[in-house]
Design brief:
five-stranded mixed beta sheet, D-Maltodextrin-Binding Protein, domain 2, alpha/beta
Amino acid sequence: MKRRSFLAGAGLAGLAAAAMPAPAIAQGKRQLKMVTTWPKNYPGLGMSAERLATRIGEMTDGQLDIKVFAANELVPALESFDTVSSGAADIYHGAEYYWQGKSKAYNFFTAVPFGMTAAEINAWIYHGGGQELWDELAKGFNIKPFMAANTGVQLPGWYRKEINSLDDLKGLSIRMPGLGGEVMRRLGAAAVTLAGPDIFPSLQNGTIDAAEWVGPWNDMAFGFYRLAKYYYWPGFHEPGSSLAAGFNLGVWESLTKQQQAVVRAACAAENDYTLAEYNAHNGDALKTLVEKHGVMIRRFPDDVVAALKKTSKEVLDDAAKEDAYTAKVYESFRSFLDTTSEWTRIGDEGFVQARRG
């Protein structure tokens, strides 16, 4: 081969090689750690975290490889926030009201008693200024947060005995986190926050008398019906529970613009997918609980509902007095809800009433 032909061939080969995508490892593949507040492989909650990690990995063609650690695999569930804030892990997947010890404002980014439905909180976060307030709050803890799942309305739980009056709440020990737990405490119950894996044994050994978790699908998976047969509604405490993926702020800022766009899209997709998943499974699970396991569905008496509503307003008002930033978040939340709730009433609620006939 002549030298000129060889050099020309080499040049074409070099151009072709430059045009081809480099292997993922050469493009800067990163391995990140996600810690969660959920049991391993748990339906809905746990699998949502796994699915989010898979989405991000596939959408970045392997550039971001996220390993998921369930509750207690790397750290206890309720230490997830501090672990990511400090940089010992890169991402958490959990419920923001678990961090109310950092700021009462965190409650508003999961659920508050008699607050927003899933559709309403999505609207507030995406279009009502909620994300900007959340970002500002979380930045002080070295976190960048996103909505990454929603369970929809949750039920107020499983009780060993019927609740016939307010007196039946007095002295009752119940697992209920967030501001819903504070409402119960003010009505005489002893509300505690427990991570998911700790609820069943606590109910079994008598440490608690009642337990709130999520709804029929997840509650059946934990087997609460074996220990308590009365299942109550309405879900006053969590009308639409938004769950979060929180990124260590330094990790988030080190991502490329393209990778950040992928994370935003993946979290939004998972938020939508998980809500649909819960709505798809809860009906079947409720039917199974009643027909196969003999669960007795009960509505709280009217006087109990009225007391829950009155006390919830007091709890929210008091939370807003904790500090100026919580007051700012509460005002945004309340103002948006005041506007959107009228549309919910004549839109969704009006149609459901008409459909029921």
